[in-house]
């Protein structure tokens, strides 16, 4: 089904793979009838290399400085981004910037604050020359597909699922500060990423959808890091067997592999997509060179893919549904073991009570968002459910078309009627079910969803209140088959149903009538509407000469998601209020964190106001006494006091910067980790002036509640140190150990020295 080559590989004429072994040169010469290009030259033959080269502003293809063509954000992230840019002197958006309103669309939680954010966005689009998409019109990524993507271009979004590679656009999801840099005419600085080929052959069998292919890939590559921070490039003859919607559905889920970005070869199918959307001029044919070198190769036989399910609590926890049903109790037992880690034993968890007469019963189905809400997915679900009923019992089914143009076409072709007649509820474009702000199931329920993630509490339940519901990811087709079977888990391949494949027609007048498009013209006379919950960022101090850190949380889960660092769901209503949102930091993983961090922060606030830090935090006196025995010159004028956390591998999942900024506004100065799950989380730490420390192994020389002294930290950052001599301060003595830090650009060091990106841009 899927094979991962253990070496790099050459792709010849787009159709033949030569693995990078000692015999490769001879094989290539025989195939080409001439000497093979060097590996370095062949690496320039990937689609990814060509796009990155065209957008690189540096004089080196090893050290990239990228300027993107367009930006996009939604209403969880754009307020903080624009507020940061405004604090740094923003006068005009220098490129098209789309502000969508698909996350905080429900104007219920928190009174007026969600709609206040929307009015902030609309007035900013007018003042700075942007594009504003009102609530319920489209989810962020569907609007980008329909209206923004262009062949050979690059888009940066403040959402982790910013992926438009199937349309020939290399897109990346990053934390908000990276968009701020683009708004201020700065660059996105990365080392040239590796490129992994995804070589497809064959064609999917009936009943298999894009989520099945995506989950099969994620299950193979997530745990081993095969594509971590690399670009996935989809090639091979199998690509031609996939519709545009199918490719898009696979592409958006590449985020869950932890890759940096994605790109696909394009063809007449993609040209037709642009034609349907009235943008044929934006199509560009993309293909690798006659000889292209890839740093890895994933071989996929599409015909061998079967309906998949990703069980709680990660998209990589995958099985075929057939395998799941054949080994039901064993799989559910494994889920319970994983729950002991993911849920920390806070609640009792079992799915074994879902087994009725040997079959797994689920209480809810959802087809939604940027992954599930596409036209073909919903047409297929309607075909499967036509003339059937989901039944009157616990099982419910909700469907969210990804945009109003899709919704309208589903109305016109009868799919909405078929879905509603079967008992489904059809709703407007909204991302809520993907992050816990809509359709939260009842306690102990299992929801099957064609959406992006199934992390703990991602469906909206609250461990701290004794609640637990869980999500399994599936394709829309098998969700519909399960619905037709009244909630008993069923792969779509088990049903004898013809999926007809209705033709899509796009009506642009919907957007022309409702979307505000400044056409890039800024109007500085427009007054920005600031709701009472929209707050400025608090002042942040530069990095001091010496740093005293208190460990205020210690997390030993194999991976810590951004949802666990700062929960999604109703907390998203406070995204525009840095201090208000910070109250929720680590609330699901370590509820005592906020109180501990605030207690330590008292000392730093005392230093900044010229008062005694030891009076504000009396326990600090013993720490200073121990420090002074070796470093007598450390005092209030040259030291800082803050908090830090340890996590094994933090930052998987969302791009939202608040996972780092909330720690910062609570006095966080650093993270300590064995590794960082994603480049974007590490970048968020840096952009908020936090030190991204690394330590080897989980046998730590410190524990939660201990103090750590980092002497001469400012000089070490200035001197480009990669190793830091630090001390555990315990029992009146200093105990030496070493922390390390990965590569930083000169700008990143300066950001850390200044204290945050805002301070850096005020220079």
TrEMBL record:
Residue intervals of the Aconitase A/isopropylmalate dehydratase small subunit swivel domain: 651-694
UniProt KW NAD keyword: no
GO cellular component, one term: cytosol
Transmembrane segments: none
Annotated Aconitase/3-isopropylmalate dehydratase large subunit alpha/beta/alpha domain residues: 51-480
InterPro entries: Acnase/IPM_dHydase_lsu_aba_1/3, Acoase/IPM_deHydtase_lsu_aba, Aconitase/3IPM_dehydase_swvl, Aconitase/IPM_isomerase, Aconitase_4Fe-4S_dom, AconitaseA/IPMdHydase_ssu_swvl
GO biological process: tricarboxylic acid cycle
Keyword Nucleotidyltransferase among UniProt keywords: no
Pfam families reported for this sequence: Aconitase (PF00330), Aconitase_C (PF00694)
Protein name: Hydratase
Keywords: Iron, Iron-sulfur, Metal-binding
Alphabetized GO MF terms: 4 iron, 4 sulfur cluster binding; aconitate hydratase activity; metal ion binding
Assembly and oligomerization: Monomer.
């Amino acid at each position: 089904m899927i094979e991962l080559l253990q070496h790099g590989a050459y792709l010849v004429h787009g159709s033949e793979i030569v693995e990078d072994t000692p015999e490769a040169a001879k094989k290539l010469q025989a195939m080409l009838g001439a000497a093979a290009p060097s590996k370095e030259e062949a690496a320039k033959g990937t689609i990814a290399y060509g796009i990155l080269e065209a957008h690189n502003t540096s004089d080196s293809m090893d050290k990239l400085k990228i300027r993107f063509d367009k930006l996009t954000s939604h209403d969880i992230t754009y307020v903080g981004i624009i507020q940061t840019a405004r604090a740094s002197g923003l006068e005009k958006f220098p490129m098209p910037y789309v502000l969508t309103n698909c996350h905080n669309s429900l104007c219920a939680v928190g009174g007026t604050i969600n709609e206040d954010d929307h009015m902030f966005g609309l007035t900013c689009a007018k003042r700075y020359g942007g594009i504003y998409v009102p609530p319920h019109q489209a989810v962020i990524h569907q609007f980008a597909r329909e209206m923004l993507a262009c062949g050979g271009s690059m888009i940066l979004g403040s959402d982790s699922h910013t992926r438009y590679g199937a349309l020939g656009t290399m897109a990346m999801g990053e934390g908000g500060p990276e968009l701020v840099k683009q708004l201020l005419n700065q660059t996105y600085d990365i080392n040239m990423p590796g490129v992994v080929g995804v070589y497809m052959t064959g064609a999917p069998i009936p009943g298999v959808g894009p989520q099945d292919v995506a989950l099969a890939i994620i299950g193979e590559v997530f745990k081993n890091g095969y594509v971590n921070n690399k670009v996935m490039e989809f090639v091979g003859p199998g690509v031609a067997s996939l519709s545009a919607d199918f490719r898009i559905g696979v592409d958006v889920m590449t985020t869950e592999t932890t890759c940096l970005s994605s790109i696909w070869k394009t063809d007449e199918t993609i040209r037709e997509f642009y034609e349907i959307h009235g943008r044929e001029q934006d199509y560009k044919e993309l293909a690798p060179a006659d000889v292209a070198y890839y740093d890895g190769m994933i071989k996929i036989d599409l015909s061998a893919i079967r309906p998949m399910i990703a069980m709680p609590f990660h998209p990589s926890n995958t099985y075929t549904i057939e395998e799941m049903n054949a080994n039901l109790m064993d799989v559910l037992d494994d889920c319970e073991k994983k729950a002991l880690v993911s849920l920390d034993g806070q609640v009792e968890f079992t799915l074994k009570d879902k087994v009725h007469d040997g079959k797994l019963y689920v209480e809810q189905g959802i087809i939604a968002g940027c992954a599930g809400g596409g036209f073909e997915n919903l047409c297929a679900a309607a075909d499967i459910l036509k003339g059937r009923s989901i039944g009157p019992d616990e099982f419910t089914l909700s469907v969210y078309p990804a945009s109003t143009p899709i919704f309208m076409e589903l109305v016109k072709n009868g799919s909405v009627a078929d879905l509603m007649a079967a008992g489904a509820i059809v709703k407007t474009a909204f991302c809520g079910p993907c992050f816990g702000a809509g359709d939260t199931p009842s306690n102990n329920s299992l929801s099957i969803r064609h959406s992006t993630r199934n992390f703990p509490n991602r469906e909206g339940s609250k461990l701290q209140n004794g609640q637990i519901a869980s999500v399994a990811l599936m394709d829309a087709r098998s969700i519909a088959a399960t619905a037709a079977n009244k909630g008993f888990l069923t792969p779509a391949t088990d049903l004898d149903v013809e999926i007809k494949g209705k033709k899509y027609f796009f009506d642009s007048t919907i957007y022309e009538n409702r979307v505000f498009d400044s056409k890039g013209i800024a109007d500085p006379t427009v007054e920005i509407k600031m709701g009472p919950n929209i707050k400025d960022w608090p002042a942040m101090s530069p990095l001091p000469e010496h740093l005293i850190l208190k460990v205020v949380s210690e997390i030993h889960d194999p991976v810590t998601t951004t949802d666990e660092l700062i929960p999604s769901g109703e907390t998203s209503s406070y995204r525009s209020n840095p201090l208000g949102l910070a109250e929720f930091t680590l609330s699901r993983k370590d509820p005592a964190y906020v109180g501990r961090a605030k207690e330590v922060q008292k000392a730093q606030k005392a230093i900044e106001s010229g008062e005694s830090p030891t009076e504000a935090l009396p326990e600090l006196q013993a720490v200073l006494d121990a420090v002074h025995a070796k470093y007598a010159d450390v005092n209030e004028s040259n030291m800082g006091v803050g908090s830090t956390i340890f996590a094994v591998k933090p930052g998987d999942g969302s791009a939202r910067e608040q996972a780092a900024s909330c720690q910062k506004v609570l006095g966080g100065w650093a993270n300590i980790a064995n590794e960082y799950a994603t480049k974007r989380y590490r970048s968020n730490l840096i952009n908020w002036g936090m030190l991204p420390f690394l330590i080897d192994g989980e046998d730590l020389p410190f524990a939660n509640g201990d103090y750590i002294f980092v002497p001469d930290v400012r000089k070490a950052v200035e001197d480009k140190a990669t190793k830091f001599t630090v001390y555990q301060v315990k029992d009146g003595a200093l105990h030496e150990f070493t922390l390390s830090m990965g590569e930083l650009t000169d700008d990143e060091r300066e950001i850390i020295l200044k204290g945050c990106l805002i301070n850096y841009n005020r220079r």
